[in-house]
From TrEMBL:
The keyword rRNA-binding does not apply. Keywords: Amino-acid biosynthesis, Arginine biosynthesis, ATP-binding, Cytoplasm, Ligase, Nucleotide-binding. GO terms for biological process: argininosuccinate metabolic process; L-arginine biosynthetic process; urea cycle. This is Argininosuccinate synthase. Its EC number is 6.3.4.5. It comes from Aliterella atlantica CENA595. Signal peptide: none annotated. It catalyses: L-citrulline + L-aspartate + ATP = 2-(N(omega)-L-arginino)succinate + AMP + diphosphate + H(+). Its main location: cytoplasm. Residues 176-394 form the Arginosuccinate synthase C-terminal domain. The lineage of its organism: Bacteria, Bacillati, Cyanobacteriota, Cyanophyceae, Chroococcidiopsidales. HAMAP family: Arg_succ_synth_type1.
C-alpha cells in the first residue's frame, strides 16, 4: 500500500465511508483525511453529510455540486453514443464514477494530498472504475481502499465505528443496496439476490406501477441539436432541468424500469434493478433521430461502436485512449443529428410516433408507392444482377 500522510476520501455519509476515516488514521497511519461528497442531483441534503464527516474525524469536509457537469460532460456524451450496457442498462450509476474520480484527483492536487481513497468492496464494479480512472488522471497518486482490505462484517464495521464516536444506524437498515443520482436509481441485494424473486413495489421511487399510471397517454416532443437534447415540447430547456422534467413525465407513466442479470467486470453475475426514466427515453429518441439523419453505412457501423463504448464505460475505461478515439468518431457522426422526436408515454411504454428534421435523408418522392414515385424501377434489374453475381457464381460451382 505505501504510507500516505494526507488523503482525500470519496464520502457518502454511510457506514463504510464514515468508518474509513478513523480506520485510515488508526490502522494505516494517515495524518489527515479530507472527505469529498459529490452532489450529482441525488436529492439528499448534503450539509448533514458534511457535518458527519467532521464528527467522524475528517480534517476538512468538501461538498461539490457537479450535477451540471455530470449531465453535460458525461451523460450527454454517453447519450450521443446510445450507450446501453448489454443493450439494456443506460449506465446511470457507472457514469458517475469517472466524474467522482476526477473530483478526487482535482482535490488531491489542490490540497497537496499524496493519496485518494474510496469505500468500495472487492466484489463490485465501482472499485475498478475508481482505481483505473484515478490512475489515468494521475498515475503518481496512491489509491487506498480500506473496505476492500479490512475484512470486517457489517456488524463489525458498525462496532468499529462506534469505538470512534460514529453512531450506528438508528433505524433498521434496508436489506437493499441503493445508489442514486439525477440519472436514476440502482437497487440490489436483499431479496433481489434471488433472480426468480419478483421485486416488491416498495423499492421503486421514480416510476409508478402500471396500475397507478394515468389512463390517458401523454405526448412529449424532444428537440435535439447535434445529438444533444435542448428542447422539451418546443421550449429551450437547460440540461439538468430537461433530465428532471423528463424523469417526472416518463416515471409518471411507469416508463424506465429495468430488471436484469448483468455480467460484472469482476466475473460474477449480479441481479440489478434500475430506474432510469429520462435516460431510456432520450436514448430511444436519439437513436430514432439518427435513423432519419445518418446514412445507412454510418448507422450500421456506429452500432458496433456503441456496444464497445458502453462496455468501456461499464468497465471503468472512461479516460482510456480508445474511449477518446471513439469520442472523436461519435462527435463527427452527430453533426447532422438535429431535429425533433415525438414520443407517446402510456402504461409503461415510450412509443415513438413521429420524427422530423431539416437534416432528414428521408425522401418522400423516392419512398412513396403513389403517383409521385420518382424511383427508377428499371434500374433495379441491373443492380440486382451485379449485387447477386457472387452468390450466383458460388451456386453454379456447388450445384
Amino acid at each position: 500500500m505505501g504510507r500516505a500522510t494526507k488523503v482525500v476520501l470519496a464520502y457518502s455519509g454511510g457506514v463504510d465511508t464514515s468508518v474509513c476515516i478513523p480506520y485510515l488514521k488508526q490502522e494505516w497511519g494517515v495524518e489527515e483525511v479530507i472527505t469529498l461528497a459529490a452532489d450529482l442531483g441525488q436529492g439528499d441534503e448534503l450539509e448533514p453529510v458534511r457535518e458527519k464527516a467532521l464528527k467522524s474525524g475528517a480534517t476538512e469536509s468538501l461538498v461539490v455540486d457537479a450535477t451540471e457537469s455530470f449531465v453535460k460532460d458525461y451523460a450527454f456524451a454517453a447519450l450521443q453514443a446510445n450507450a446501453l450496457y448489454e443493450n439494456r442498462y443506460p449506465l446511470s450509476t457507472a457514469l458517475a464514477r469517472p466524474l467522482i474520480a476526477k473530483l478526487l484527483v482535482d482535490a488531491a492536487q489542490k490540497y497537496g494530498a499524496d493519496a485518494v481513497a474510496h469505500g468500495c468492496t472487492g466484489k463490485g464494479n465501482d472499485q475498478v472504475r475508481f482505481d483505473v480512472s484515478i490512475a489515468a488522471l494521475n498515475p503518481k497518486l496512491k489509491v487506498l481502499a480500506p473496505a476492500r482490505e479490512w475484512g470486517m462484517s457489517r456488524e463489525e464495521t458498525i462496532a468499529y465505528g462506534e469505538r470512534f464516536g460514529i453512531p450506528s444506524p438508528v433505524k433498521k437498515s434496508s436489506p437493499y443496496s441503493i445508489d442514486r443520482n439525477l440519472l436514476g436509481r440502482s437497487i440490489e441485494a436483499g431479496p433481489l439476490e434471488d433472480p426468480k424473486h419478483e421485486p416488491l413495489e416498495e423499492i421503486y421511487l421514480m416510476t409508478k406501477a402500471i396500475a397507478d399510471t394515468p389512463d390517458e397517454p401523454e405526448y412529449v416532443e424532444i428537440g435535439f441539436e447535434k445529438g444533444i437534447p435542448t428542447q422539451l415540447n418546443g421550449r429551450a430547456t437547460a440540461p439538468v432541468e430537461l433530465i428532471k422534467q423528463l424523469n417526472t413525465m416518463a416515471g409518471n407513466h411507469g416508463v424506465g424500469r429495468i430488471d436484469m442479470v448483468e455480467n460484472r467486470l469482476v466475473g460474477i453475475k449480479s441481479r440489478e434493478i434500475y430506474e432510469t426514466p429520462a435516460l431510456l427515453v432520450l436514448i430511444q429518441a436519439h437513436r430514432d433521430l439518427e435513423s432519419l439523419t445518418l446514412t445507412a453505412d454510418v448507422t450500421h457501423y456506429k452500432r458496433g461502436i456503441e456496444e464497445t463504448y458502453s462496455q468501456m464505460i461499464y468497465n471503468g475505461l472512461w479516460y482510456s485512449p480508445l474511449k477518446g478515439a471513439l469520442d472523436a468518431f461519435v462527435q463527427k457522426t452527430q453533426e447532422r443529428v438535429s431535429g425533433t422526436v415525438k414520443i407517446k408515454l402510456f402504461k409503461g411504454n415510450a412509443t415513438i410516433v413521429g420524427r422530423w428534421s431539416d437534416q432528414s435523408l428521408y425522401t418522400p418522392d423516392l419512398a412513396t408507392y403513389g403517383a409521385d414515385d420518382k424511383f427508377d424501377h428499371k434500374a433495379a434489374e441491373g443492380f440486382i444482377y451485379v449485387w447477386g453475381l457472387p452468390t450466383r457464381i458460388w451456386s453454379q460451382q456447388n450445384h
